[in-house]
Amino acid sequence: MGCNRNCGLLTGAVIGAVLAIFGGVLIPVGDKLIGKAIKKDAVIANGTIAFENWLVPGSTVYRQFWVFDVQNPSEVLDKGARPRLEQRGPYTYRVRYLPKENITENNDGTISYMLPNIAHFEPDMSVGTENDTITCLNLAVVAAPALYTNTFIQLLLNTWIKSSKSQMLQNRTVKEILWGYKDPFLNKIPFPVDPVVGVFYPYNGTFDGPYKVYTGKEDIKKTAIIESYKNKRNLSYWEGHCDLVNGTDGASFPPFVKKDQILRFFSSDICR
Predict the structure, then answer these.
(1) Which residue in 180, 88, 89 sits closest to 140, CA to CA?
(2) Distance CA 202, CA 91 (A)
(3) Based on the number of CB atoms within 10 Å of its own CB, is 215 exposed (0-12), middle (13-18) or buried (19 or more)?
(4) What is the pTM assigned to this prediction?
(5) What's the Cα-to-Cα distance from 171 to each of 71, 152, 164, rounded to whole Å?
(6) Where would a tag sit more exposed on the chain, N or C end, judged by fewer CB atoms within 10 A?
């Protein structure tokens, strides 16, 4: 009875020691095999899981806008009163949901592509509709005299402004303000000038790029990191670090990210 008990304890100890040894050997081997498999599928190359996830953004991206509506336009125009503003919004749009286009795999471990620009209005996430009418600044009327300060040109501009019945303030829908409208003043100018004005015009139906990002074939830690944007590594808008094109486009990030690691992404819409 004592022998059986001692034999059982000894057998258990031996089995435990063997399992510990195997565990010590197999865990690093297993980690290595898993890491190797992840590296293989994390590379942005046609046929990999990473490529399919990178091609079409997996997470939805939204842009929200707030606009200011002038409540006392007559007092502002007739008496030069200070405008009384009311904030309207948010007006929410879904963006960055179309697949990347013009994809080219390069020989230097990078891949190039273009991002299609499209903005789809999301009424359930908005306060109001994109057809809400807003009394706002007339961008063309205000900007043209500031850009062309020559006295003779100013006279011509005033003539075209009056003939188009334009004023410093105008009524426009949110959709027009954001994405563009044909301005009557610019339409009167007898020169080849694009009469369409909008805060983000042109946007819908255009393309952003080209982007050039690392595939991760040569260095897995650089997967999806932007190498250049519009063939540049700087934006020429800011100074120092803020002017660098760094990080990813936000659609994907390199594997093996640590909890305390800072993830950077680049947004061309705000040039940061």
Answers:
(1) 180
(2) 19
(3) buried
(4) 0.78
(5) 11, 29, 15
(6) N
Residue 69's H or E segment, with its range, is strand 61-70
Classified as helix, coil or strand, 138 is coil
Tokens of 113: 């592509």
The Cα–Cα gap between 162 and 167 comes to 8
| Other beta carbons within 10 Å of 118 | 15
